Amino acid sequence: MHMLMRMPVGTKMERVIKVVERNRKWKIDAINNDSGYRLRYGTPAFVTPYNIHLGGAIGTQSIRAYLGKYTLVFRVDVVVFFGFDENSRLVDLHVIKYVDAL
């Protein structure tokens, strides 16, 4: 099921946390109540004091959650970043797959 069908834009942060916690395979890695996330070369990352000057923040709060892994030839880890506005409502999300080919 598509993530935005489970948690559409406008969903409260508390609801997103509950959906993630209800799925036994998913795990919240981090909650950032002070800043959103940004995309760098298409890859999401938290906004930090060290990269805030680069701009492009998605949301003013964010969550990073680990969704699991699978193996085809190489191991693939799946992570999602959720961005929330100042009212703790979902504004966007990005799913990224990290491939470990070593």
SSE run: HHEEEEEE
- Number of separate strands: 6
Enumerate how many helices there are, as a single number.
2
**Strand neighbour order, sheet with most strands:** 1-4-5-6
Largest sheet: 4 strands, antiparallel
Distance between the termini: 30 Å
Q: Describe the global form.
A: globular
Structural class: mainly beta
Strand content: over 45%
Oligomeric state of the chains in view: single chain
* Fraction of residues in helix: 10-25%
* Cα Rg: 14 Å
Poorly predicted runs are none
Chart the SSEs and their pairings:
Layout: H1 3-6, H2 13-22, E1 27-32, E2 37-40, E3 43-46, E4 61-71, E5 75-84, E6 90-100
Antiparallel strand pairs: 1-4, 2-3, 4-5, 5-6
What does this structure look like?
The chain has helices at residues 3-6, 13-22; strands at residues 27-32, 37-40, 43-46, 61-71, 75-84, 90-100. It is mainly β. A hairpin with a 3-residue loop joins β4 (61-71) and β5. It is globular.
TL;DR of this structure?
With 102 residues, the protein is mostly beta strands.
Keywords:
102 residues, mainly beta, 4-stranded antiparallel β-sheet, two-stranded antiparallel ribbon, 2 helices, 14% helix
